[in-house]
Amino acid sequence: MAIVHPTAENFDALIRDNKLVLVDFFATWCGPCKMIAPFIEEVAEEYEGKAVVAKIDVDEAQEIAAEYGISSIPTVILFKDGAPIHTEVGAHDKAFYANLIEMHL
């Protein structure tokens, strides 16, 4: 599986140590989150080695969600060189997430 599941302890290192990181903030009870999950998985596999794709359950990692002001899910944040460069709220198709990574490679 190409998706990583960071914790509060290793999240900062993950975004700092990788050039491009796409983070999907989700919850298990969220319908739109479940809808985009296969797209996020496919993007993770296709861009393995080029970008890191992570999923963070907002119920389990409330401190990370709070740090980035996550108030609606799904929210996807793209980090480049340790800094958030794009935040997208709501569900989109696979091409949207792939293009987001592609634009910043």
From TrEMBL:
Residues 1-105 form the Thioredoxin domain. The record marks 31-32 as: Contributes to redox potential value. InterPro entries: Thioredoxin, Thioredoxin-like_sf, Thioredoxin_CS, Thioredoxin_domain. Coiled coil: none annotated. PROSITE patterns: THIOREDOXIN_1, THIOREDOXIN_2. GO terms for cellular component: cytoplasm. GO terms for molecular function: protein-disulfide reductase activity. The record marks 24 as: Deprotonates C-terminal active site Cys. The active site is at 30 (nucleophile), 33 (nucleophile). Keywords: Disulfide bond, Electron transport, Redox-active center, Transport. This is Thioredoxin. The gene is trxA.
